[in-house]
Specification:
The chain is of the alpha/beta class and 285 residues long. The chain is built from eleven helices and seven strands. The chain has two domains: 147 residues, Globin-like, CATH 1.10.490; 126 residues, 2-Layer Sandwich (Transcription Regulator spoIIAA), CATH 3.30.750.24.
Length: 285
């Protein structure tokens, strides 16, 4: 591409931006010109500031590193804001259309226009692929954040009585989640000065050797803080699996329901539940 073509694009910056925005609006019914014009203008300035004959003819596009960085940032941001992959791709394809349309108005030689259009198209097509990589990264960041939030929400530690905390576990336990469970439980034991912790696994669909090992580690960590741990929610099918796998839970207090675990905790604390007109709890002297 001769210097003439790059010069045309730089001189027609305002026309390119206006045409690009118009094309985006035509393709995207949810396009917000006020919010997205700034991104488009920043990218166009970076692109025109980089483009020259040597960069255009570089098949690997090494001269566009700065432009690629800006494009990646825009793509990641769009993914986090809820844009679809199609909308992200349209962003670059409408940009290519705007560039080629401007060139077609100022280059009269068909052969020259064809040659320059091919080079522009290749550059923008490579950038379009980059937008998908940025979009995927943005969605992965969103999913990772949501996973962390769900994990945090799904492992609440509840103070059920003075000295007693309970942690209902819902879903499958893996190494990462066990770490969160353990950290939350130990933190609450320290903050509430609790001496008994109840792990309720009623919401755990299945218990295998790996899940059992995670539970045993949590119990061991709890005991290091001077608290006793009770595991509740041991259903008949879970009991059979534990026995079949040969997992030794004999040194851990286990109960079939959360209610029975809570009663066991009261007994350990020498508390007695009296079923009267007004239910209350007395300490047994």
């Amino acid at each position: 591409m001769e210097h003439k073509s790059t010069q045309i694009l730089k001189e027609k910056k305002e026309s390119i931006l206006e045409l690009w925005i118009t094309k985006q609006m035509a393709q995207d019914s949810y396009f917000n010109a006020e919010d997205q014009k700034e991104d488009s203008e920043d990218f166009l300035n970076a692109f025109l500031g980089t483009i020259n004959e040597s960069v255009i003819n570089d098949q690997n596009g090494k001269g566009f590193e700065k432009v690629h960085d800006i494009l990646m940032g825009i793509s990641v941001s769009r993914a986090k804001r809820g844009f679809t992959p199609r909308e992200t791709a349209i962003y670059m394809f409408t940009f290519k259309e705007a560039l080629l349309e401007v060139l077609s108005k100022d280059i009269s030689d068909p052969a020259k226009l064809y040659e320059d259009s091919l080079k522009i198209s290749k550059i923008i097509d490579n950038m379009a692929i980059l937008t998908f990589e940025g979009y995927i990264k943005g969605r992965e960041d969103v999913i990772a954040r949501q996973t962390d939030e769900i994990t945090e929400i799904s492992t609440p530690v509840i103070r059920v009585w003075d000295g007693v905390v309970a942690l209902p576990i819902i879903g499958t336990l893996d190494s990462a989640r066990t770490q969160v469970v353990m950290e939350n439980l130990l933190q609450q034991i320290v903050e509430t000065s609790s001496t008994i912790a109840i792990l309720d696994i009623s919401g755990v669909p299945a218990v295998d050797s790996l899940v059992a090992q995670h539970l045993i580690k949590t119990v061991s960590a709890t005991r290091l803080l001077g608290a006793e741990c009770i595991i509740s929610g041991i259903r008949p099918e879970i009991a059979q699996i534990v026995v079949h796998l040969g997992i030794d839970l004999s040194n851990i207090i286990t109960k079939s329901t959360l209610a029975s675990a809570l009663q066991a905790a009261f007994n350990m604390l020498q508390l007695e539940v009296n079923n009267k007109k007004t239910t209350y709890i007395n300490r047994v002297d």
